[in-house]
Every structure is written in structure tokens, then in C-alpha cells.
């Protein structure tokens, strides 16, 4: 048992590192407990690639401007209003100063990626991706004297009245305890515990893929909820996207995501379309497709595109299935050939004038008389060869989490837990009631990680 640590930070991703660095810069002694082995440190953050950032005028790699109100409006669209406006606006406003802070802590940025992302004005892209960001933060944390323990499996936080009295964890084959002055929980959601996911979703969850880290099993979250720490969010709500059906069960990451949906039709196993593929620009709608696929038979969908659309999006790590005819493509994807051909023919007939087709913005090129309609980018699928991908639900992180206030502090029904803060995905449900906005998870983690680190250090000091 050790009692010489001011602050224990549980987790090893972006939010945890932001908290640890901030607390160390405030003069506190900090210990990070990261469940993963060192090569897999960083949680879901190592799979990220950008940070959504408010800015008044050009800012770093960002062009033009992106106001607080426009940012919040974008968030309202994807969450259908299910958000805490005070916390959301806090994250949005603070994001502008975070970009400079990130650079000061070793993060480098690059011009935005092109294609369906269309994010040059709203999102700052990390040079080297999330893994580079994570490595930079670990270097900085170590230079600040932060102690980092890998393969440190936290098993219990002892809540006594309104304080966390000790932290129990397994490390190097031994049961250990720390008695810190303050604790920051930044250990993500519960998505890697597929039994918990199945209890929330039912049997369909058995077919889900977990695109993020296999180490976010919700152990600390469950432990605190069992002790009466206040929760927020719906266990069935999550950041879930449509990913390549050939992706691994865990840790496939962002390279398994498919960005071709706006230029395709998407059918279920029966060869039937079920949703508007062109509803909005991809960064505002890609995260709904995981849930849409989850609602289809066997939790699987199929993308169909033709030759003229193949170069309009960033490819998956897996090559598409290719065929010279729709019937051949259907056979290769185990779809009913006649039904797929009929579905494509019906779609093609509903397409009108495509002269205003524009792949990176809403173009209004829509179908007519078709249900469901395709409201943008509706061009006939008629130029061979034809290409297809299978789609499965890829869960990134769950939204059931710890409820926090504007200081990132946790509470029970009796009031605040005096020395407990939360940041990142483990409290993102405080802001994300449903849906997702590209790059916003990194915004939440960075903003509330810094707040949690600052407040924990203030308490410890």
C-alpha cells in the first residue's frame, strides 16, 4: 500500500493523459494506471485522427471559422437534442484554446483529409494519427514526472461517505493499493465486455464488432455505479458505425470504417434498401449507420457501388468485392441475385438529373418517387465493374457513464464525491445522449481531461 501519490488517474488514453499532464503541471504527484500493455496503451485514442474545434477565423490547420452556435447546432442535429447544453457549450468554447495547448504538449497537425470527410473547416487532423498523439502525450507526461504503470488492472475504488479512500488494482501478479488524495476516472465505456453489451442490447449484440480497444470493459464504471455514484446515459446508446464485415472482433480501428455509403445503395441480406444513404454529409451521419445495421436481419448490410464512384471515398483496409455484373456481385456476397438487380433497377429509374452532383457537399441530387428516398448524391449504379462491401455494426464506445458537472466532478444522490472526477468516454454520455459528431470524442476528452486534472490538483494541494 502506498499513500505518497496525490492523484491516481485510471485509464491511459487522451482524457487520462490530459488530466495527468495538467495535474502534474499544477504541482501534484500523479500515477497513471493503464490496463493495457505498453504496446497497446492509449485506449481508443490511438485509433483517432482528428479533433473538432471551434475557432474565430483561421486557426492552425483550420480554415475560415467555426462558431460556437454552428458547432452546437451540428451537435443538436446528431443528438436530436439529447444533450446537456451547459456541458456541451463548455466543451465547444474551450476547444479553441485546446488546439494551441495540444501543440505545446507535442501534438503536430496536418492539412485535413479529403473525400467524404469534408472537415477542413471544423476538424484538426493529427500528423501521424492518434497513435502519434498518444506517444507525444506519454513522452510529455514522463518528462513531468508522472508515474505510469502498465497492465495495472483496477478492481475497486473504495467509496466511504463522500470520498474515495483507496484504489485497489492487480499489477505484476500482486494485489496492490494506493491511497491518493484524489482520483480521476478516464477508463472508457463497457463495450469490450460483450456480455454487458448483450444484456443491454439483447442477442443482436453478439454479432457486433468492437472497433476500439479490447481493454475497455467497464470494470471501474460498474464498481462505482454499484456504490451509488450517479450515472448518465442509456446503455443501448453508443458510438457505433458501419465497418467492413471482415474486420476483427476487437481493435480493428478506424481503417475498417467504410466511407462509401453516400455514393452507394445499402441493402440488407434480402437485397432491400432500408434508409436514405444521402441524408447528410458523412461526418454528421456516419455514426448512425452502426445502429441502422444493428436493426437489420443478422445485423449485416451490404454496400453496392459502381466504377464511377470507386475513387470518391477513402478505402477500407480491405479491398472491395468486384464483379462484372450485379448478378455476379450478388453471388459473391451471398445476396439474392434477382432481388438485388431489381432493387438497383428501381433505384436507377428513380434517379433524375445528375448534372449538379458534387461529392463533398449536399448537392440535392435526389431520387423521385422512391421509398426510402436518397436525398443527395443519387446517381444510377450502372457503370461496371460493380463493387460491394459487407457491413457490420462496429461499436467504438458506450454512452452509459458517470454523471459529471462543469468541473468534471462526480456525485451520488447525497451530493458531490469530494475527490472523484471523470473525463473522456466514461462521462461522454453527459453530453452525447445519442448519435455522434466526427472528432467530438477527442474534444470531450481533452476539455474535461484538463478540467479534471486541474480540479483534482487543486483539491490535492
Describe the structure.
The chain is an alpha/beta fold. It has 2 domains: 291 residues, FAD/NAD(P)-binding domain (3-Layer(bba) Sandwich), CATH 3.50.50.60; 155 residues, Alpha-Beta Complex (Flavocytochrome C3, Chain A, domain 1). It has a 6-stranded mixed sheet, with helices on one face. A hairpin with a 2-residue loop joins strand 19 and strand 20. The longest helix is centred in the last third of the chain and has 21 residues. The radius of gyration is 23 Å and the shape is elongated. The model has no long low-confidence stretch (mean pLDDT 95).
Protein topology:
Elements: E1 7-10, H1 14-25, E2 30-34, E3 50-52, H2 68-79, H3 85-104, E4 109-110, E5 123-126, H4 129-143, E6 147-150, E7 153-160, E8 163-171, E9 174-178, E10 182-185, H5 194-201, E11 209-210, H6 219-226, E12 231-232, E13 238-244, E14 265-267, H7 282-285, H8 289-294, E15 300-306, E16 321-323, H9 326-332, H10 337-350, E17 386-398, E18 401-402, E19 409-412, E20 415-422, H11 440-460
Parallel strand pairs: 1-2, 1-10, 2-6, 10-20, 11-17
Antiparallel strand pairs: 3-5, 4-5, 7-8, 8-9, 12-18, 13-17, 14-15, 15-17, 16-17, 19-20
InterPro entries: CobZ, FAD-dep_OxRdtase_2_FAD-bd, FAD-oxidoreductase_2, FAD/NAD-bd_sf, Succ_DH/fumarate_Rdtase_cat_sf
Organism: Roseibium porphyridii
Pfam family, one: FAD_binding_2
In short:
Pfam families: FAD_binding_2. Residues 6-433 form the FAD-dependent oxidoreductase 2 FAD-binding domain. Strands 6-2-1-10-20-19 form a six-stranded mixed sheet, covered by helices on one side.
Amino acid at each position: 500500500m502506498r499513500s505518497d501519490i496525490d492523484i491516481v488517474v485510471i485509464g491511459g488514453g487522451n482524457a487520462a493523459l490530459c488530466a495527468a499532464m495538467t495535474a502534474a503541471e499544477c504541482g501534484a504527484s500523479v500515477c497513471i494506471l493503464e490496463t493495457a500493455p505498453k504496446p497497446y496503451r492509449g485506449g481508443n485514442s490511438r485509433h483517432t485522427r482528428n479533433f473538432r474545434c471551434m475557432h474565430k477565423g483561421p486557426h492552425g490547420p483550420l480554415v475560415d471559422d467555426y462558431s460556437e452556435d454552428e458547432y452546437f447546432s451540428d451537435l443538436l442535429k446528431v443528438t436530436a437534442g439529447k444533450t446537456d447544453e451547459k456541458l456541451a457549450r463548455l466543451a465547444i468554447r474551450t476547444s479553441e484554446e485546446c488546439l494551441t495547448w495540444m501543440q505545446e504538449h507535442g501534438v503536430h497537425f496536418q492539412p485535413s483529409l479529403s473525400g467524404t470527410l469534408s472537415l477542413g473547416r471544423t476538424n484538426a487532423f493529427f500528423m501521424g494519427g492518434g497513435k502519434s498523439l498518444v506517444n507525444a502525450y506519454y513522452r510529455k507526461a514522463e518528462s513531468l514526472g508522472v508515474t505510469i504503470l502498465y497492465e495495472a488492472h483496477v478492481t475497486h475504488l473504495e467509496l466511504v461517505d463522500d470520498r474515495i479512500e483507496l484504489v485497489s488494482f492487480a499489477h505484476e501478479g500482486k494485489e496492490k493499493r494506493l491511497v491518493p488524495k484524489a482520483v480521476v476516472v478516464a477508463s472508457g465505456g463497457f463495450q469490450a465486455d460483450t456480455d454487458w453489451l448483450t444484456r443491454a442490447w439483447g442477442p443482436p449484440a453478439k454479432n457486433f464488432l468492437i472497433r476500439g480497444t479490447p481493454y475497455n470493459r467497464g470494470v471501474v464504471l460498474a464498481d462505482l455505479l454499484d456504490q451509488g455514484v450517479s450515472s448518465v446515459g442509456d446503455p443501448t446508446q453508443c458510438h457505433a458505425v458501419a465497418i467492413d464485415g471482415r474486420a476483427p472482433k476487437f481493435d480493428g480501428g478506424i481503417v475498417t470504417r467504410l466511407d462509401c455509403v453516400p455514393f452507394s445503395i445499402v441493402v440488407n441480406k434480402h437485397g432491400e434498401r432500408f434508409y436514405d444513404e444521402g441524408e447528410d454529409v458523412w461526418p454528421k451521419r456516419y455514426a448512425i449507420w452502426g445502429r441502422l445495421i444493428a436493426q437489420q436481419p443478422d445485423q449485416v448490410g451490404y454496400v453496392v457501388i459502381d466504377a464511377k464512384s470507386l475513387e470518391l471515398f477513402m478505402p477500407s483496409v480491405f479491398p472491395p468485392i468486384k464483379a462484372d455484373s450485379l448478378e455476379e456481385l450478388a453471388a459473391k456476397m451471398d445476396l439474392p441475385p434477382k432481388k438485388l438487380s431489381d432493387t438497383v433497377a428501381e433505384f436507377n429509374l428513380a434517379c433524375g438529373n445528375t448534372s449538379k452532383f458534387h461529392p463533398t457537399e449536399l448537392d440535392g441530387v435526389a431520387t423521385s418517387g422512391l421509398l426510402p428516398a436518397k436525398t443527395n448524391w443519387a446517381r444510377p449504379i450502372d457503370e461496371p465493374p460493380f463493387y460491394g462491401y459487407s457491413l457490420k455494426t462496429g461499436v467504438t464506445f458506450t454512452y452509459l457513464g458517470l454523471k459529471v458537472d462543469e468541473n468534471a466532478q462526480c456525485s451520488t444522490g447525497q451530493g458531490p464525491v469530494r475527490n472523484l472526477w471523470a473525463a473522456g468516454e466514461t462521462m461522454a454520455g453527459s453530453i452525447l445522449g445519442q448519435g455522434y459528431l466526427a472528432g467530438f470524442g477527442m474534444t470531450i476528452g481533452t476539455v474535461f481531461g484538463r478540467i479534471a486534472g486541474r480540479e483534482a490538483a487543486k483539491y490535492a494541494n
